[in-house]
Amino acid sequence: MAKCPNCKAESPNPAKTWKYGIFTVKAYICKNADTVQRILDRKGKHSFTLKLMKVKGYIKA
């Protein structure tokens, strides 16, 4: 489960999950704020969150 960095709403299930090197990436879509965020986990622990900005691409949240 992930919280949206903009509106703090919770998304129960990721839209997509994949491996990227040593990380497991989970992509969540927030319907309230109309944003996309990616959460990167390493060995089951949260490493960092990236959110999609319309002009800049993905930035660290």
Describe this structure in words.
There is one protein chain. The chain is mainly β. It has one domain (2-60). The chain contains no helices and 7 strands. It has strands spanning 2-3, 10-11, 16-20, 23-30, 35-42, 45-53, 57-60. A 5-stranded antiparallel beta sheet has the order 3-4-5-6-7, with no helix packed on it. A two-stranded antiparallel ribbon has the order 1-2. It starts with a strand and ends with a strand.
What attributes characterize this protein structure?
mainly beta, two-stranded antiparallel ribbon, 61 residues, 7 strands, globular, five-stranded antiparallel beta sheet
Short description:
The protein has strands at residues 2-3, 10-11, 16-20, 23-30, 35-42, 45-53, 57-60. Helix content is 0%, strand content 62%. By secondary structure, the protein is mainly beta.
Low confidence ranges: none
- In what order do the strands lie side by side in the largest sheet? 3-4-5-6-7
Strand residues, percent = over 45%
Main sheet record: 5 strands, antiparallel
Number of helices: 0
| Percent helix range | under 10%
The coarse overall form would be: globular
> How big is the Rg?
11 Å
Q: What is the mean pLDDT?
A: 83
Distance between the termini: 16 Å
H and E order: EEEEEEE
